[in-house]
Amino acid sequence: AVRFMRLHLHKKRSEVKQSFLQLAGVSLLKPLKGVDPNLISNLETFFTLDYPKYEILLCVQDKDDPAVDVCKKLLGKYPNVDARLFIGGKKVGINPKINNLMPGYEGAKYGLVWICDSGIRVKPDTLTDMTNQMTEKVGLVHGLPYVADRQGFAATLEQVYFGTSHPRSYISANVTGIKCVTGMSCLMRKDVLDQAGGLVSFAQYIAEDYFMAKAIADRGWKFSMATQVALQNSGSYSIGQFQSRMIRWTKLRINMLPGTVLEPVSECFLASLIIGWAVHHVFRWDMMVFFMCHCLAWFIFDYIQLTGIQGGPLCFSKLDFAVAWFIRESMAVQIFLSALWDPTISWRTGRYRLRCGGTAEEILDV
C-alpha cells in the first residue's frame, strides 16, 4: 500500500498520460443540504475548474434550504459556467442523497457523471486528472478520501484517521483487486449506470456508492484511482461527529459484508496483543515487550504513510500526531462494539433500520 501510494498519488500533471476521454463532457452532480462555513469556498472551486466541457448540476432537496442562496450567488458570479440549480428532488426510495440527485441525473447531458459530495474541494486540474484515468476498460474513477488542513484537535484526529487506518485498507483492497470505493468523489460512465437501471435502482440502499461500484464491476468494467485525493473540507466537525460517522460506516459494512466482524483484529492494539500472545507461546518471547515494539513499528509506518498521502508538510506537530493516533486507535474497538449494539443508523434528517444485504427501511416517528 505504501509503495502504491508513493508511485501513484500526487503525480505532476506532465507525468500523467492523456486519456482518449480527456475531452469528453462531464456532468457534475452536486448534492447539497445545509450550509457550513466552508461550503461557498468549496463549491466555488468547481466553478473554476480548468476543463473544456463540463456542467454543474446543483441539487437541493428543500426550497427553504440556505444552500439555495449559496448556489444562486455562485450562479450569478459565474454566468459563463454551464451550471443549473435543481430544487425539490424526486422521491424514488429511502436514500435521501439519491432522491436529491434524481432531477440532476435525469437532466445530465454528458456521457460521464461525476458525483461529488458537498464538503469536497478541488484543484483546477482535478477533473482533468480523473478523466485521464478513464481509459477504454475503466468504468469508474474514484478518489482516495483525505482531509484538508484545518485547525483544532478534532480536525487533527480526522486527518490522522484518513491518513493512516482508512487508506491502509482502502489502498490495499484496490491493489489486490478488491473493489473498494467511497462515493465522496466518483466519475462514472452514465450508460453503464443506465444499464443497471440508473440512479433509481440504488435508492433502496443507504450505502449507494458500494452498490453502484458493484453494478459497474459486475458488467466487466475496471476501476481506477485518481492521482489526487478527494479532499474533504467540511467547516463543521467535532470528535462526536467523527465518532458517529465511524459508527455509521461500520454498521453499513457489517450489514453488507458479514466478514467485517473480523475487522477489529486488523487494528493496532488488538492485532499486537494477538501476535504477542502467539510469539510468546511459540518462541517464548516476552509478550508485553513484543506488544510495545509492534505498536511502535505500527506507529512509525503510519506516520510515514500519512506524510506520503499529505504530499507535503503536516499542519500539526509530531506530538499532536502521537496523541491523535493513540486516541484513534483506542476508539477503534469501542466504535465497533457501538455499531453492533444498535442496528439502526441516523443519516441526514432520517433514521433507518438496516436489513441483511444492504437494503434499509426508514423509521418513521408515530
From TrEMBL:
Q: How does it sit in the membrane?
A: Multi-pass membrane protein
Give a GO biological-process term.
Answer: glucosylceramide biosynthetic process
Name the Enzyme Commission number(s) assigned to this protein: 2.4.1.80
The answer to whether UniProt assigns keyword Transferase to this entry is yes
Q: Which CDD domains match?
A: Glucosylceramide_synthase
What's a Gene Ontology MF term here?
Answer: ceramide glucosyltransferase activity
Q: Which residues form the signal peptide?
A: none
Q: What is its main location?
A: Golgi
Record-given protein name: ceramide glucosyltransferase
* Species this protein is from: Mastacembelus armatus
Higher taxonomy: Eukaryota, Metazoa, Chordata, Craniata, Vertebrata
